[in-house]
Amino acid sequence: MSMIAAFYGGKSILITGATGFMGKVLMEKLFRTSPDLKVIYILVRTKAGQTTQQRVFQILNSKLFEKVKEVCPNVHEKIRAIYADLNQNDFAISKEDMQELLSCTNIIFHCAATVRFDDPLRHAVQLNVTATQQLLLMASQMPKLEAFIHISTAFSNCNLKHIDEVIYPCPVEPKKIIDSMEWLDDAIIDEITPKLIGDRPNTYTYTKALGEMVVQQESGNLNIAIIRPSIVGATWQEPFPGWVDNLNGPSGLIIAAGKGFLRSIRATPMAVADLIPVDTVVNLTLAVGWYTAVHRPKSTLIYHCTSGNFNPCNWGKMGFQVLATFEKVPFERAFRRPNADFTTNTITSQYWNAVSHRAPAIIYDFYLRLTGRKPRMTKLMNRLLRTVSMLEYFVNRSWEWSTYNTEMLMSELSPEDQRVFNFDVRQLNWLEYIENYVLGVKKYLLKEDMAGIPEAKQHLRRLRNIHYLFNTALFLIAWRLLIARSQMARNVWFFILRMMIFYLRR
Ligand SMILES: CCCCCCCCCCCCCCCCCCCCCC(=O)SCCNC(=O)CCNC(=O)[C@H](O)C(C)(C)COP(=O)(O)OP(=O)(O)OC[C@H]1O[C@@H](n2cnc3c(N)ncnc32)[C@H](O)[C@@H]1OP(=O)(O)O
Ligand SMILES: NC(=O)C1=CN([C@@H]2O[C@H](COP(=O)(O)OP(=O)(O)OC[C@H]3O[C@@H](n4cnc5c(N)ncnc54)[C@H](OP(=O)(O)O)[C@@H]3O)[C@@H](O)[C@H]2O)C=CC1
Asked: Locate the Fatty acyl-CoA reductase C-terminal domain: which residues (predicted)?
């Protein structure tokens, strides 16, 4: 019997960010392994014209929850969606709902965040810092609370090369930052943002670091733990391999490369690709929830959920396997044949951006205009290049994260728990994982049918022929121009022709 699964039985659990990538997998696993849990409260806002109930309905009816419905048929009754907006005071939660949350909650998993790299500082602070502070205040009023688990990121201190399981202070206190956001206007905030974030690459990593400081400062008597995952990718094993539902991290770039838009990226092939499957993060999170509540460590423990020091894979190997998988399972209606490459040099990278990205987009837009359609490729390409430039920081560096706490926790688990809540990435086979990841992107993100693979392959063959034809035409034009101007070029040309005729006659 799994001790962790048994621990969550009968519990009332509060999850923020349950509609997000990680939140959904966390809910799924909880319901599947502890179907006898009492209730999961989720804080949900309305979005894209959908009510909170409609959003929950959509999640429960997705492929991800198919197994849950077999194990826990009354899952609908066990989810309590509470309308909340983490940008508002008291999260805009009604009095009755707040009362219920305060009096019943046993465990909190705080996953909500803005993960956009380019969010204005004010918004990133509101969600990643102020909302965390408010949630801690709520937690301090919960008499039955056993553990508060905060999800941070392994990159909150990406300005360092070696990162320990400790909270590193930021030069300006989070309280001062929160206060200043109240009276500074947007223009001034934009001006001081680069100075505040210092040697971090974006507002996301900076505000996640501030969020950790808030957790440390406001922890009071709470029983808290922080989890720092690295780059979270598709599921490894559970509930099935390859599930992914958003474009963050590598997923968007896999699509861009598979559709032939992305042909080159400035990345260091030997740098460690510290990817971690989302189900591994969720297993560790649930194990940490159990450990924190049952063993009540004296201080706030931080757990690095990373792969690099256990089972490293580099970007070169990952890129190679992604491309190899495109050969077997190509994406439909590709713009060009997938053939992406890594370059480490900024000048080469700019050259490829001009030749392999911008030029084909301009040519295609010209063709669209000629055929009376609206040009769109240049805009799309500019967006893609902007995204790539934001991710470049993370694919040109390697970090070392110490993992004493994570290893300690692994050794505390019973063999059954080590199996059910497996977070040992030493067992991960990267080649198999990446292949399933690409397949998952095709199935769950692009919603492409496997039956369309022969047609996709046929389309790629057509693209290859067009490519050869285009190159041959280009070569002939260039050569013709050269021949017209140089006697030497003419001599070489006739020599080659004579040789060809000679060999053909033999
Ligand atoms: C041999 C070569 C082989 C090559 C093979 C190639 C593949 C193999 C290896 C590749 C190396 C991987 C490196 C990963 C490193 C990750 C490091 C993460 C580290 C930190 C981890 C964390 O701790 S935290 C989670 C990460 N946090 C994000 O990762 C958010 C990023 N993101 C944004 O910060 C915003 O997204 C940003 C970008 C501002 C745009 O902002 P924006 O306003 O221009 O665009 P929007 O987001 O509004 O989206 C507008 C339209 O772009 C679509 N789209 C959005 N993202 C997209 C995306 N990534 N790729 C494509 N398309 C995307 C979207 O679907 C919309 O499409 P539509 O318009 O049709 O609806
Ligand atoms: N994905 C990754 O690679 C990594 C993620 N992390 C951390 O993991 C956690 C989860 O990330 P992930 O699931 O990928 O992120 P997602 O962007 O998929 O999910 C974010 C969640 O936060 C919710 N949220 C955002 N703003 C509000 C708001 N104002 N009110 C209520 N809810 C809100 C979103 O709700 P809605 O659906 O309404 O938008 C969504 O449920 C985050 O803390 C992130 O920092 C750490 C390392 C890597």
From this structure: 357-448
